[in-house]
Amino acid sequence: MAKEYDLVILGGGTGGYVAAIRAAQLGIKTAVVEKGKLGGTCLHAGCIPSKALLRSAEVYAQTKESEKFGVFVNDVKLDFVKVQERKGKIVEQLHKGVQHLMKKGKIDVYEGTGRILGPSIFSPMPGTISVELNNGGENEMLVPKNVIIATGSRPRTLPGLDIDGEYVITSDEALQLEKLPASIIIVGGGVIGIEWASMLNDFGVEVTVLEYADRILPTEDRDVSKEVEKLLKQRGINIVTNAKVLPETLEKRNGVTIKAEHKGEQKAFTAEKMLVSVGRQANIEGIGLENTDIIVEKGFIQTNEFYQTKESHIYAIGDVIGGLQLAHVASHEGIVAVEHIAGQNPSPIDYTMISKCVYSRPEVASVGLTEEEAKEKGYKVKVGKFPFKAIGKALVFGEADGFVKIVADEETNDLLGVHMVGPHVTDMISEAGLARVLDATPWEVAHTIHPHPTLSEAMAEAALAVDGKAIHF
Ligand SMILES: Cc1cc2nc3c(=O)[nH]c(=O)nc-3n(C[C@H](O)[C@H](O)[C@H](O)COP(=O)(O)OP(=O)(O)OC[C@H]3O[C@@H](n4cnc5c(N)ncnc54)[C@H](O)[C@@H]3O)c2cc1C
């Protein structure tokens, strides 16, 4: 029997479940269809499990260096089974939390694979959702007034580089490793590749990163890429930029060997495993897009600024529409879409206000334009940069690498971008985000009196440095 809803959300990942909660708050009768687990990639194969492993790696690496703090620990050992157990517990706790939130919001959750149908006896418009239930029961037929597609993404690979799950893996398999390899080649030095490089190196794995671009973290400010590369190399990570991996040269025999073209020469790299982290592709297959007029370009669903597709009652949010594939972006897109459905006239998201983070050691965080982007856009820029080595709290922490860099407009004094490398910068970046949202000038940031000693003083000092007025450097 068909069931009627105001809204059905296809996919219960970060985008989908947050949209459902907002809809419930607005009194919209909502259902979520999820074929895997509520929480999606972020909770089960992304943000949370990777950060749990990164934290264990950091504790291990720091404990080995504890003598620097005058603390002597004998016989530091790593038990990777326990590391994985800890990760699993955190994920499970949060998973239960999301399930509870669905119940609290009286949101119906269908465990199964949803597919959009074309015009049918249920509705003259495309959008009825047929759900093939995971428990093998008879398909459910959901008839909603509106639909949000939030089916997310999955790892991409290079043509010819097949993921076998044993020698050649993606972050999906890496998160489930039962045993650490002795060595690994990471293809791709973007956010995911660099987080894994940093983590595995801290766990004692020999790491080689092969990056096609001329620098790692190519979407970050150039100074940031340079600093992270320098610091990771100091820790013994082999980073090769301008490296074009040649999938056809892959050999698998008790490990992997692959060649990459580097500076006009072919070089071979060998390791126990290879992790491919070259981006993520949208989950657009098998969801019935062919039954609609929805437009897909370069593999991503196209929408307007309120996330309406060509079918104005069908919205799409999160990784499936491309752009910044981040959890906080997916959830905010979900909120905007729901508020638009509710006729609340939400403001479109300004993507230049969104903070991006990398949870390597040291961490990286940024918001707004890089120096290069600002110049390309024709701004006359002034730059303030302040190193953590001149910040007391960073020295106390024993983590004084990195800096805060502020890019400002020389003519208007606008804060165009903030770029950070260093301890806990992923927690510090929100001050920069707020400053941009409130249109604060570097002067206003600097005149917010920052408590001493804190890492956040680096932000205030960098703001002073924009006009050559930094105090401690
Ligand atoms: C290793 C890794 C680390 C990451 N770390 C971070 C981080 O630190 N911070 C950050 O902001 N982002 C991070 N991300 C990115 C983040 O996970 C994604 O941006 C986010 O999960 C996108 O949310 P979403 O709701 O669009 O999609 P997803 O979370 O992928 O959810 C989509 C859901 O839809 C379901 N689904 C798909 N098709 C159907 C169907 N036909 N019927 C029913 N259900 C369906 C899937 O099972 C899935 O649960 C990371 C990603 C990875 C891979």
From TrEMBL:
This is Dihydrolipoyl dehydrogenase. It comes from the Bacteria. PANTHER family: DIHYDROLIPOYL DEHYDROGENASE, DISULFIDE OXIDOREDUCTASE. The keyword Lyase does not apply. It comes from Thermaerobacillus caldiproteolyticus. Its main location: cytoplasm. Belongs to the class-I pyridine nucleotide-disulfide oxidoreductase family. One of its GO terms (biological process) is 2-oxoglutarate metabolic process.
